[in-house]
TrEMBL record:
Name of the protein: Small ribosomal subunit protein bS21
Presence of the UniProt keyword Ribonucleoprotein in the record: yes
Record keywords, A-Z: Ribonucleoprotein, Ribosomal protein
Keyword Ribosomal protein: yes
Organism of origin: Tengunoibacter tsumagoiensis
Composition-biased stretches (Basic residues): 43-60
Length: 60
């Protein structure tokens, strides 16, 4: 669970920006989007294979 403590004399907006940045870095939103709908194991395998292919294509 991500947590941001507000410092003295810090505005809510800056604390919210720090929180959003931390959430983005932790990958919480991406994980939530990925889990939003059920993904069949065959589709999961295809997605991973496609990512692997893209990754190896970048190296060349």
């Amino acid at each position: 669970m991500s947590e941001v403590k507000i410092n003295d004399n810090e505005s809510f907006e800056t604390a919210l920006k720090r929180f959003n940045r931390k959430i983005q870095q932790d990958g919480v939103l991406a994980e939530a989007r990925r889990r939003e709908h059920y993904e069949k194991p065959s589709m999961k395998r295809k997605r991973k294979e496609a990512a692997k292919r893209r990754k190896t294509a970048r190296r060349v």
